[in-house]
Amino acid sequence: MRDLLPTGRPVLVLAPMQDVTDLPFMRIMGRRGGPDVYVTEYFRVHGDSRPEAHILRSVCEHGTGRPVFAQMIGQDIGSLVRTAKELLKYPVAGIDLNLGCPAPVVCRKDAGGGLLRYPERIEAIVGALREAVGEGRFTVKCRLGFDDAEGFGRLLGIFGRHRPDAVTIHARTVRDGYRTPVRPDPVVEAVGELGCPVIANGNVVDVATGLAWLRRSGAAGLMIGRGAIRNPWIFDQLRAAWEGREGPAPTGNDVLEYVQELWDETASCEARFHEVKQVAKMKKYLCYISQGMGGDGMFEHRIRRAETPGEFFGICREYLGHDDAVAVRPPETSTFFCGFGALLEGEAGGG
């Protein structure tokens, strides 16, 4: 992983989001600068599983020219080791273990964030994958804990013993979901204790929040998910800030073009989609994109009720068909972007 870190600045990573940060999205991000490193949607791993073909396409066909880590989720050690070895036959930069997904359906299976309740199992999994994957290619993404962060120190001890090549920390608990501010102090602790790059994740919605996260944590880089869906220029904007140049300042029509590209790429990659299913797929993106784009929440309200392509694009044109710059940040009252203002407290120009 260290070989993938850019020289002289923090690394930028796209956060994996199931059914959202897929092959079409990766391609479109690449056209707008994109992250330094991509992470796939998670491969579901169990006794009978095989790597899903549509996620393997995002490994083999993304065309961004950037490295891609294959993320796995599961709790059966033998199956995780088997799948990791199989995935390493493909052009992946490495294997990432998901210890953070808060989805109830995942946690009920003691996978993702659900594993944080069982540190002994985590120790066994991380140790087995460390041995199976080899040096330089094994990373972990985690949250601070399940109900609370009291066991985070023990988690750092596990990582310290088994030496993953990088650790990404979404600085909330599973119970927090996405509803609270992130907590920089545990990330600071991880940076001080672990001998590998630590990546900060959560609440990065624009350049100011990204820079504040780095100043408060000392992390080696940022992982961005929701903020990148709403603003696919965010990675290039951050690079511009570090390089002292003017970054992209998208207008409503720029965002509308982005939505059209998402539609076209999704239609191309998912030829089986009927128009109604295509609209449903696009709503997963628009829930994030619509935040702060005008209408006091009516954009999202109306787009959720669109059923046909005509209705969908008619609503998008109504709110995005203009040459004015769009809002840099979403509203902090949004259900999708909560608590990011806490990162900016005391920051010059902060909210």
In percent, how much strand structure appears in the residues? 5-15%
The count of β-strands is 8
Share in helix: 40-55%
Low-confidence stretches: none
CATH superfamily of the largest domain: Aldolase class I
Gross morphology is: globular
Category by helix and strand content: alpha/beta
Number of domains: 2
- Sequence of secondary-structure elements: EHEHEHEHHEHEHEHEHHHHHHH
Please give the alpha-carbon distance between the first and last residues.
34 Å
- Name given to the CATH architecture of the largest domain: Alpha-Beta Barrel
The helix tally amounts to 15
Mean pLDDT across all amino acids: 94
Summarize the structure in short:
The protein is an alpha/beta fold and 351 residues long.
Note down, in words, how this protein is organized.
With 351 residues, the protein is of the alpha/beta class. It has two domains: 242 residues, Aldolase class I (TIM Barrel, Alpha-Beta Barrel); 69 residues. It is 42% helix and 12% strand. It is built from 15 helices and eight strands. α2 links the parallel β2 and β3. α3 runs parallel beside α5, α11 runs antiparallel to α12 and α11 runs antiparallel to α14. It starts with 10 loop residues before the first strand and ends in a 7-residue tail after the last helix. The model has no long low-confidence stretch (mean pLDDT 94).
